[in-house]
Amino acid sequence: MLALDIRNLNKKYPNFELKNVSFQLEKGYIMGFIGANGAGKTTTIKSMLNLIQIDSGEVRILGKSMAEHETELKQEIGFAFGGVDFYTRSKIKTLTGVIKKFYKNWDDAAYSNYLRRFKLDENKKIAELSAGMKVKYNLAIALSHGAKLLILDEPTSGLDPVARDDLLDIFQSLVLDGEVSILFSTHITSDLEKCADFITFIDNGQIVNSSDKEHFRETYRLLNGKESDLHQVKDKLISYKVNSFGFTGLIHAGDFEPALDIRAAIPSLEEIMIYFAKKEEAHV
Amino acid sequence: MYNLLRKDLKLGVHPMFLIMPLLTGALMLVPAWIYFLVLLYFCWITIPNMFGGFKAQNDLMFTAMMPVSKKDMVKARVSVLVLLELLHIGIAMLYGLITTRLYPNLDYYFFKPSPGFWGLCFVMLAIFNLIFIPMYYKTAYKFGSAATVSITAAMLFALAAQWVGIQNTKMADIFNVTVGDHMALHSSILIAGIAIFIAFAWMAYRMAVTRFLKVEIQ
């Protein structure tokens, strides 16, 4: 069953456009949604949640159309928008007291468990929580109302490596039983190397690739060669850099001929992102 | 809808704004004052502070993430506004009753607290609502121009009504001297005022919903 099914999402702004954004997330998996700043990650997420009006396309969550069942589906979705704060001068228990009334499946016992597990003190104010604790608080809320899909926008941005690692462990433990699915956007690709099952890469408002993590990386090759060899592959490279040692460039695996005397390696997610960003620069 | 009301009253509306009707209402005790001002304090103080609070606390995004419809979001916010207005006007009426008993022999230049005057106050708030609510829901967070235009309109109505109340000797007499002799007229003005208040709040709500459905929540 698909936890998330996005088909041909289009949204046009004066200076930016989401073009035919489509991707699917199977239930019980973690999908990393990557892209540079301004690539369209948050716009896509907000379109999915009906926060902004899409020009065309369809969003289906847990098998139901978001446009038709928004209120019902929001009972089953948990959110965390990194860096966005609400009612920061209120205590956790005051905020929870208000939020829990909105959810028909709210489970007080589960909530208490998550507070203990995440070491959250109910008497603290939101403003007193660290960035990582705020994400954990959002997770505690989401999981206590039985959310089946967690949509997390940059939840690890701004966290120190220890807090990030801690959160990634939590994400992995949440999907273990196959009930919860997670879509999380980030530009910190190392987080995804650790915990994502699938990667969806958005660049300049368009989905470049959406597949399982290993397949995603294997779709590309990072070439390393002498500058004199560059002309053999230049036209097929997504983008490249030249320095005193030669050139490095990214190419679709299918476009690369192994017979050539150029070293090829499977790139990291970060390298893929960087070379796609360079392609944009070259076109500007 | 009930959850949204509860959310506004527990998180969004500072308790101070629930006490304000008691404080501004006490201005009704100032002998023969321009009593329209008592309710205008609600527009001048409570509205910008309360809506500034919603904006500062990212209430729009917070509420939009809850499992509620956009229509209910507007309905709850309009209900909070109307509730506060009724508190202000209701408590001011009580203070008005005290005033007329405290100073029975005053000569009123401006409107005396009377059922007819309260009817005009309902109309003043109705005008405020009809302009403020739909204008605010163009963005659902910017309140500056909506508050400025709607408060100005409410003040202009109060100014015009008060000016006629002073210039027209018959009206001055009905509103300030012979209130007891014209109870039927006063009651009709009050009922008409309440009817206009309800109708305008309903229209404002409908217009606001139409606009809010197009709002992009950023």
CATH top level assignment of the largest domain in chain A: Alpha Beta
Structural class of chain A: alpha/beta
The beta-strand count of chain A equals 14
> Mean pLDDT of chain B, as a whole number?
94
Helix content bin of chain A: 25-40%
Q: Give a quick account of the main beta sheet of chain B: strands, pairing sense, barrel closure.
A: none
With strands numbered from the N-terminus, the spatial order across the biggest sheet of chain A is: 6-7-8-3-9-10
Per DSSP E runs of 2 or more residues, the count of β-strands of chain B stands at 0
Question: Largest interface, with Cβ-Cβ < 8 Å?
Answer: A-B, 27 and 20 residues
The run of helices and strands of chain A is EEEHEEHEHHHEHEHEEHEHEEEH
Helix share, percent of chain B: over 70%
Element pattern of chain B in H and E = HHHHHHHHH
Could you name the CATH homologous superfamily of the largest domain in chain A? P-loop containing nucleotide triphosphate hydrolases
Radius of gyration computed on alpha carbons of chain A:
21 Å
Polypeptide structure, described:
- The complex is a heterodimer of chains A (284) and B (218).
- Chain A has 284 residues and is α/β, with parallel strands linked by helices.
- Chain A has 2 domains: 2-212, 3-Layer(aba) Sandwich (Rossmann fold), CATH 3.40.50; 219-283, no CATH class.
- Chain A is 32% helix and 30% strand.
- Chain A contains 10 helices and 14 strands.
- Chain A has helices at residues 41-48, 70-74, 92-99, 108-117, 131-144, 161-175, 189-195, 213-218, 230-233, 269-283; strands at residues 2-12, 17-26, 30-34, 56-61, 64-65, 77-81, 149-153, 181-186, 198-203, 206-212, 220-225, 237-243, 246-252, 263-265.
- In chain A, strands 6-7-8-3-9-10 form a 6-stranded mixed β-sheet, with helices on both faces. A 4-stranded antiparallel β-sheet of chain A has the order 2-1-4-5, with helices on one face.
- In chain A, a hairpin with a 4-residue loop joins strand 1 (2-12) and strand 2.
- The longest helix of chain A is centred in the middle third of the chain and has 15 residues, at 161-175.
- The model of chain A has no long low-confidence stretch (mean pLDDT 88).
- Chain B has 218 residues and is mostly helical.
- Chain B has one domain (2-212).
- Chain B has helices spanning 2-12, 15-25, 36-56, 59-64, 70-102, 115-136, 144-167, 169-177, 183-212.
- The longest helix of chain B is centred in the middle third of the chain and has 33 residues, at 70-102.
- The A-B interface holds A 46, 49, 51-53, 70-75, 79, 81, 84-88, 90, 94-95, 97-99, 101-103 and B 3, 6-7, 10-11, 57-59, 61-62, 64-69, 214, 216-218.
